[in-house]
Amino acid sequence: MARKKIALIGAGNIGGTLAHLAAQKELGDIVLFDIAEGVPQGKALDLSQCGPVEGFDASITGTNDYADIAGADVVIVTAGVPRKPGMSRDDLLGINLKVMKAVGEGLKQYAPDAFVICITNPLDAMVWALREFSGLPHNKVVGMAGVLDSARFSTFLAWEFGVSVRDVNTFVLGGHGDTMVPVVQYSTVNGIPVPDLIKMGLSTQEKIDAIVQRTRSGGGEIVGLLKTGSAFYAPAASAIAMAEAYLNDQKRILPVAAYVDGQYGVDGLYVGVPAMIGAEGIEKVIEIELDAEAKANLQVSVDAVKELLVACKGIDNTLA
Ligand code: A3D
């Protein structure tokens, strides 16, 4: 069987980390694409030279030509600009929308059968626009945010309870912004819901509320520390988990920005929900029961995503 082909659009901080992880896991041969001349080629060469040391077999090439992504099985999109301190994700909308148009056209021409994972911010609007520009089926275009936001929530909870991160399972729903919804009700330590752990005296409501808030602003906390860009290790690891779920038909239930049409009272929008990823891409959106507070928060988040789509349509009238 021929090796799978993984195309990475954007060879910046996340793109380079994605290439390294994909090579280490031998997910397939890797093509790094960027508009910056020399950058994808240089990173590809550097990463190729990890092969003998780390012992992986993967061809890694860099390119500025979309033709080289032809036939890709998985495409992960990070092209665009990241946040700087003081910027919200939404401030990136105008510039990254143009980038999504170029990427969408490249996908339509060269990789129409790929499973496409978008990471570019503002995520929920960019994944929607990328789907529109590319014309690919909705089940094959998905956004990465919930896996990362849940990983942040899990990390903070593991620290709070003093337990292994492996035993913490969390869900963060809604848009990837300040209105995201960490769902405490469905977050557990080895099956024990966080509200029960509070009742057992292992934490307090105030501490968990503070963790929810820290999760919501988890990306901004890192931007504030790095000063020159945004998080990239955990975002890359999260997208790789989604790519593996597709390539290996794992049927994983992951929180992702999926196209929702009907569930949760949402019509025709990309928003963070639990969904099953397998060989068909997004195979199912899972509708979990939410308490009144989570429902209200999800609605705020959905409204925020809708506003972004109106802004997108205002900038590019082909999206109307
Ligand atoms: P960065 O290191 O700047 O890399 C972006 C790359 O995109 C650069 O190498 C650019 O040259 C390249 N690029 C720009 N325009 C184009 C184009 N038209 N075609 C191809 N390549 C282009 O950023 P990064 O890797 O740190 O972040 C990438 C994106 O991910 C940003 O929009 C971030 O905001 C976003 N991000 C999202 C999350 C989520 O959880 C959703 C987390 C972290 C970062």
From TrEMBL:
Enzyme Commission numbers on file: 1.1.1.37
InterPro entries, sorted: L-lactate/malate_DH (IPR001557), Lactate/malate_DH_C (IPR022383), Lactate/malate_DH_N (IPR001236), Lactate_DH/Glyco_Ohase_4_C (IPR015955), Malate_DH_type3 (IPR011275), NAD(P)-bd_dom_sf (IPR036291)
Role this protein plays: Catalyzes the reversible oxidation of malate to oxaloacetate.
Signal sequence bounds: none
Record: active site: 176 (proton acceptor)
Catalysed conversion reaction: (S)-malate + NAD(+) = oxaloacetate + NADH + H(+)
Protein name: Malate dehydrogenase
Superkingdom of the source species: Bacteria
UniProt keyword annotations, A-Z: NAD, Oxidoreductase, Tricarboxylic acid cycle
Residues annotated for substrate binding in this entry: 83, 89, 121, 152
Chain positions recorded as NAD(+) binding sites: 10-15, 34, 96, 119-121
Residue ranges of every copy of the Lactate/malate dehydrogenase N-terminal domain listed in the record: 5-143
Domain annotation Lactate/malate dehydrogenase C-terminal: ranges: 148-307
Gene3D superfamilies (alphabetical): Lactate dehydrogenase/glycoside hydrolase, family 4, C-terminal, NAD(P)-binding Rossmann-like Domain
Gene, per the UniProt record: mdh
Similarity comment: Belongs to the LDH/MDH superfamily. MDH type 3 family.
Coiled-coil segments on the chain, per record: none
